[in-house]
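JOB MANIFEST
job_type = single_chain_structure
chain_count = 1
residues = 384
[input]
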Amino acid sequence: MNAIEHKNIAIETFPWDNNFMTGLQSVDSQHHELVDLFNELNISLFSDAREEDKNKIVENAFERVLDYTHYHFSDEEKLMENNGIDPRHIEAHKILHEQFVQQIQTLWKQREVITRKPEIFIGFLISWLGMHILGVDQSLARQVKRIESGLTPAQAYELESSVHDNGTQALIKMINNLYKVLSMQNAELALVNQKLEERVKQRTEALARVNAELEAFSRTDGLLKIANRGYFEDRLRQACEECAQNGRPLGLLMIDVDFFKRYNDTYGHLAGDECLKTVASCIRDTVVRHSDLVARYGGEEIAVILPDTDAEGVKAAAERILESIRNLGLAHKSSEVAQIVTVSIGGISKVPSSGNQSNQLIALADDALYEAKRQGRNRFVLST
């Protein structure tokens, strides 16, 4: 008899005796091995070891139980085929094998949320083993003996309906009912936890979306819906570091709406906001590379980071922006350049020597911007 000491009380798990013998040597030997493994799993579940060590011990014991169960089922099924057992019994027997594997795997998956793991696991295993041995395996053994004595498989199978006395039938029925109740409880537990996992998954996804939105909000200018100053500075430092490491040129544009103060004075600040939003959207649509970044630098000034871009590339990007803004045809009757909204652009292309040159690049692009304004606005000047 296997037993363990838990809180100073000897707890019997599954005592093996001759009542569980079927007379089939290989089957009885494997049943005894399963009983020993069940008892070992029970000892592991009630162990006083550290939680981390205990989990490893329990997991190892469970895997051995499941592996041996697969082996036992496979061996039993071969035995039934080799002895010509009636197909009705073979089919029912195989279904019980498959159900057990599914049920025990489901139960194991839910182990983290089961509050009374030892009692539930061992209760289920013992009720299954009692039903398995006293029910289908004893029936199998009797059919094998009848077939060996000369009965047909069908005759051997059909005699099973009258083999037990009332007491034995009641006991087997009781064990079967217990097994069915525990199986239903396991299925319900699995369903509840599946729904719980789904709710957790949904909430996790919702939280991820909220966090993504918050992150996007923290780096986006509320009015213009392009990157804000803080994010621009972070990305420019990062681009400087990458281009310095790779020895590649980094382009930068500083863009200013021409005579924007006069635009506000003439059309009002709400119209000025709409003008800036339209200009920002136009620039963002014109700068199409994924690696580029359009950001609000301050007031009506917009910056564009152009990684891996030489002087010719910076000039080409600036010319496209100038043309796109002109093509908007936004009225600006207070402008001294044209009767439409225009922009001035200063640019720089340089291979950074380190990641600390972002301020230098901004200063050079800003100087080029003011030179563009000095030359009459509505144009691009490249820093030399």
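[summary]
Residues 107 and 357 are 60 Å apart (CA to CA).
The longest helix spans residues 166-218.
exit_status = 0
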